[in-house]
Amino acid sequence: MSVIALLVLAVIGLSVLPSIAGDIRAIPAPVIDEPSGQATSEVAVLAGGCFWGVQGVFQHVEGVTDAVSGYAGGDKATAEYETVSTGSTGHAESVRVTYDPRKISYGRLLQIYFSVAHDPTELNRQGPDTGTQYRSAIFPTNAEQARIAKAYIAQLEQAHAFNAAIVTRIEPDRTFYPAESYHQDYLTRNPTNPYIVYNDLPKVAALKHQYPELYRADPVRVATAGLSN
Predict the structure, then answer these.
(1) What does the alpha-carbon distance between residue 74 and residue 161 come to, in Å, rounded to a whole number?
(2) Does residue 228 sit within a domain?
């Protein structure tokens, strides 16, 4: 992370964290999680509003080796920003998170997703952004992920972890398409952008505050040269 980004994050941490402390959701870890195995790399696809902030959060998570902004839920032909922005494609702005399951589990990623990356009680919107392309959705890559996600939502609902119902959809069998290169690493490259400062840097600050053992100061970057649809 650049010096400017660190300075802005420090200011956000000092000025915003006290005011959002009551909004940081201390939710339980999932009771049902993926078993430990021999795999060294797994993929999770998550949607929770504008992908800039969701990507920015997971780029700061220990055990994450890649986090790519993109689209999921629609067809390849419509996986393009201007078209997705119409809200008519079925796509949601999403992030493909590649992680090392020996260091962090799928369930722990979901815990971060539900607690600091977005608000799972907002229907077809996040903050200032509205439309189905900003919906809360999990795109499981296999049946085990779908089972864990469904069980975790039920667990959180039973625990009354939120003041409103969770509206997160579980949408299996959807292909992920990387977004345009200018959307990648957007938070890291534009830390003084007013949208990022107001909407997204507080999420990174919340990650550091709530999960210090999982926070990495230096975000993992996207190799944009290798992106393709």
Answers:
(1) 31
(2) no
What is the CATH number for 105?
3.30.1060.10
First to last CA, the chain: 27
Give CA 96 to chain center in angstroms: 9
User: Can you give the length of the chain in residues?
Assistant: 229
* Contact indicator for 34, 58 with CB cutoff of 8 Å: no
Residue 63 and residue 49: Cα distance in Å, rounded? 23
Q: pLDDT tens digits for 177-202?
A: 999 999 999 999 999 999 999 999 99
In a domain, 229, yes or no: no
- The answer to whether position 205 is within a domain reads yes
Residues 6+ apart with CB under 8 A from 19: none
Strand partners, 46: 95, 138
- The strand pairing partners of 94, in sequence order, are 47, 70
pTM above 0.85, yes or no: yes
What is the span of the domain harbouring residue 106? Answer: 3-223
> Dihedral sign, CA of 112, 115, 117, 120?
positive
Contact present, 59 and 9 (Cβ < 8 Å): no
What is the pLDDT, as a whole number, of residue 21? 39
Does a structural domain hold residue 213?
yes
Domain count, the chain: 1
Positions marked catalytic:
50
